Amino acid sequence: VKNVKKYEFKAEVKKLLDILVHSLYTSREIFLRELISNASDALDKLRFEQNKGTEIVNNELPLEIRITFDEKKKILTISDTGIGMTHDEVIANIGTIAKSGTEEFAKMLAEVKGDVGNIIGKFGVGFYSVFMVAKEVTIKTKSFKKDEPAVEWKSDGLGDYEITEIEEKINRGTSIIIQLKDDAEEFAQKWKLESIIKKHSNFISFPIYLENEKINTVTAIWREPKSSIKKEQYDEFYKFLTYDNDPPMDIIHKSVDAPIQFNALLFIPKKSNDLFFYDRENYGLDLYVRRVLIQHKNKDLLPEYLSFVKGVVDSEDLPLNISRETLQENVIFTKIASSVTSNILSHLQEKAKNDKEGYNEFWKEHGKIFKLGYMDFANHDKYVELLRFNSSKCKDENELISFSDYVERIKEGQKEIYYIVGANRSALLLDPHLEIFKNKDLEVLFLYDPVDEFVIQAIRKYKDYEIKSVQNVDLKKINEFKDVVEKKQETEPLSKDDQKHFYSLLSKMKSILGDKVEDVVESKRLVDSPSCLVSKDETISSQMKKILKMTNQ
Ligand code: ADP
Ligand code: MG
């Protein structure tokens, strides 16, 4: 045999392979989705090089994916005319886990143990998933670059792989040849392959031929008129895009013509993926120029606080050969990005107005991320209107109000919006700071999330109303409001004798508490409780101090 070289898989690859090989049968079919998606990526990259005018081997070949099978021999082959790989690229791309996502995924898989099958389908597991069904895999690949020899890679997925230079002449692109495991023979059957391709890969933008018959749709659904698309097609596309099993919560389909032309098809997922660190890193919108994919998961089209939004953006007005590195400096691109943001915010405004319940659902799922938008000064007014809070006047912890709801029922003469910070509603309802506000019938916003306080500190005001912590209010102002319930008994002024006892009690407390407090004083705010802690510092509340202490600042 000519120049065969053996290599060992890196330790982390072995670990991942071990998990995949032993994973549940139900999720095995997604290996085909992964291989087709790699073929499609390779074709996208090739088209990108063509648009740049690069010299390309076999430039005349059509850009397509071909799948063939041999039912008797249990062999399945997936071929593309994409970018291909050189000898060194095969080692770099296939032999190691290059993308951090796969590493994260492997960690997560190891953590969840039991339910592996359920999780695999939701993530882009990558090339190695082929070993769920393969006894042996051969890759034959020829790079688009001139004078690079074709290469063969072969492995049983156990510990090592071997690489050989191919001497015979083969065309540009990559073929993955799979010798199926005995119990995976169904993946060499036409009906099975056809149904898997339809289910997972229908929206791939290059033709997929199964034994010479085209299987997929190949339409850029985002460029079709809204009226021609059924809900099921949107849902199907969403699933194709996100691997999410639930249909989306909302669909935003926009066609903008002026001043810059673009189409956007955006989705708000039903469930937040906040739990998965893996997915949080993975956000972004797919950017197309005239139906040609320029970049998967572009992060500059969306501000981070809208990172829960999934989808695609396609523009006629960007050059096809635009490089990803210079996108951010492109004026047209940045205008598209800001228009995408304002379209999403307008959608949310509409939703908040017309579907209050739906908006509250949205808030409970995605509010945690959305709140981080307090840095988006350009959209400040819209952002502030979209915030939601629980408050002392809500009937339970599920009810939410906006600043505008608060102001609509504000007390006559009230110039401030009040808030209190705490772990949960039942704790806050018992908080002594709240007593006087209850007694004066003043509404107080309840902030449960540590981030809320940063949000409030950043926005400071809603319209002309200053937003103030109940710990830092001017009690004189509060006391000007009428009591709802008359005090049970008018407290009589203390007698000289009692006064002496009272002040000596205060100074005793002070000496016991020592450095822990600034002062111990008579309270004008309490109604039922004997004592409470108040903050002297105007800007930092006790809750915020706890956070700062936690983070050692
Ligand atoms: P990902 O696709 O997320 O990068 P994969 O594990 O699926 O991760 O693939 C790893 C890498 O192998 C790809 O990034 C690509 O460089 C290379 N690769 C896989 N399949 C092909 C193919 N059909 N053509 C060219 N390169 C490929
Ligand atoms: Mg892949």
Automatic annotation (TrEMBL):
ATP binds at residues 34, 38, 80, 85, 93, 99-101, 174, 324. The keyword Cytoplasm applies. Residues 1-324 are annotated as: A. Pfam families: HATPase_c_3, HSP90. InterPro entries: HATPase_C_sf (IPR036890), HSP90_C (IPR037196), Hsp90_fam (IPR001404), Hsp90_N (IPR020575), Ribosomal_Su5_D2-typ_SF (IPR020568). The keyword Nucleotide-binding applies. Its main location: cytoplasm. GO terms for cellular component: cytoplasm. Keywords: ATP-binding, Chaperone, Cytoplasm, Nucleotide-binding, Stress response. It is found in: Cytoplasm. Gene3D superfamilies: 3.30.230.80, 3.40.50.11260, Heat shock protein 90, C-terminal domain, Histidine kinase-like ATPase, C-terminal domain. GO terms for molecular function: ATP binding; ATP hydrolysis activity; ATP-dependent protein folding chaperone; unfolded protein binding. It comes from the Bacteria. Homodimer. Belongs to the heat shock protein 90 family. Molecular chaperone. Has ATPase activity. NCBIfam families: PRK05218.1. HAMAP family: HSP90. This is Chaperone protein HtpG. It comes from Stygiobacter electus.
